[in-house]
Amino acid sequence: MKKLTLSLFALILMLALAACGGAKDEEKPADNATPEDKPAEESTEVTITHELGETTLEKNPEKVVVFDFGTLDTLDELGIEVAGLPQSNVPGYLSKYEDKKYENLGSLKEPDFEAINAMKPDVIFISGRQTDLYDQLSEIAPTIYMGVDTSNYMESFKENMDKIATIFDKEDEMNTELADVDASIEEIKTKTEGIDSNALIILATEGKVSAYGPSSRFGLVHDVFGFKPADEKIEVSTHGQNITFEYILETNPDILFVIDRDAAIGNGATAKDSVENDLVKKTNAFKNDKMVYLNGEYWYLSGGGLQSIKEMIKEVEAGL
User: Are residues 209 and 299 in the same domain?
Assistant: First the structure.
């Protein structure tokens, strides 16, 4: 009887130990557990789709390289640090980026690949002037194209702003900024809808002039702000349609928007004297004091930025 009792006690003890061991095993994840069984870690990567492809990078990159002044303008407005950029022809209102604390990476058309590679950047932002260099830059770091589609300006601009907001966790701030921009544009459009005046946009440089119409580089004057074009048949080209001062007189715009490239690139020259010649002085625009000189830094150098779009809106209002 005693042996039976001891045997029974031993059996109960073994069963209890087995139960405890099973409970502990249940608490630990199995070695062969599938990824679905394990808790997921929050990804810090983001994939950005752009005109030249898809680019995956870590969110909130620290070493930021910029080859597009519109993007530089936006990053500056949002308080995002930049590590390097081409320091030639930087717009005056962004002149702080000419400081030695920022890496000088060549020019917009001729990047210093050796300097870029030595930096080991986390992201590189480019636009139209660097399109052909996309593959080379992508070998160094994640590269994102930020050019604006001028035939669909505002949608393209907002897509670029969304890219930046997503990468740097600035969605709320960006939504506020874009709401303000939309409100300003609507205010202009309510005014342009009520006038019959037409407008012509020209770029002046070194005594030569070119015209821009709807869907062109500066076509948002017509497409977004609502000014009627003085000529609807202007050739859409990056460099505009070459014209003469006789053409300006024949077209006879009520408002003449002038982008002074000479002043924008900082060579100390200005196109005003060559533009306001005897032929142009016969136009309605000159006679009615509707010659509107647009700041080439915003329009020619850094278009597509948060700061530049606000200033462009203010300048165009002068035409009203």
Answer: yes
Q: Reduced to 3 states, what is the DSSP secondary structure of residue 67?
A: coil
Domain containing 245 — which CATH number? 3.40.50.1980
Burial of residue 89, with CB atoms counted within 10 A of its CB: 0-12 exposed, 13-18 middle, 19 or more buried: middle
- Burial code (b: 16+ CB inside 10 Å, e: under 16) for 159-194 equals bbbbbbbebbebeeebeebbeebeebbeebeeebee
Give the phi and the psi of residue 55 in degrees, each rounded to 5.
-130, 125
Q: Which structural domain range is residue 119 located in?
A: 45-147
What percentage of the chain reaches a pLDDT higher than 70? 85
Per residue in 122-144, pLDDT (tens digit) is: 999 999 999 999 999 999 999 99
CA atoms of 136 and 213, how far apart (whole Å) = 34
Among the candidates 147, 176, 210, a domain finishes at 147
Per-residue pLDDT tens digits for 216-239: 999 999 999 999 999 999 999 888
55 forms bridges with which residues in the sheet?
48
Pairing of strands 123-126, 198-205: unpaired
DSSP secondary structure, 272-308, as one string:
HHHHSSTTGGGSHHHHTT-EEEE-HIIIIISTTSHHH
- Tell me whether residue 139 is in a domain: yes
SS3 (DSSP) at 145: strand
